[in-house]
Amino acid sequence: MDKPLLIKLANRIKELRKQQKITQDELAYRANIGRSTLGNIETAQNDVTFSKINQLAQAFELSLSEFLNF
Length: 70
What we know:
- The chain is mainly α.
- The protein is built from five helices and no strands.
- The radius of gyration is 11 Å and the shape is globular.
- The two termini are 15 Å apart.
């Protein structure tokens, strides 16, 4: 992924997490990913696999299209 897209995704995750008033730890648990991995995603440090994107969408109880609506 290119950096601007990673930044948009990171901002979307932060926005949704704050709307749902959950911590990074809670989201990581719900998505079944490591807390440090989530931290790297939220700071746009690493590329994100499609499976991780899907796990995050499920953790937010959103469809992929809703999750990626940014």
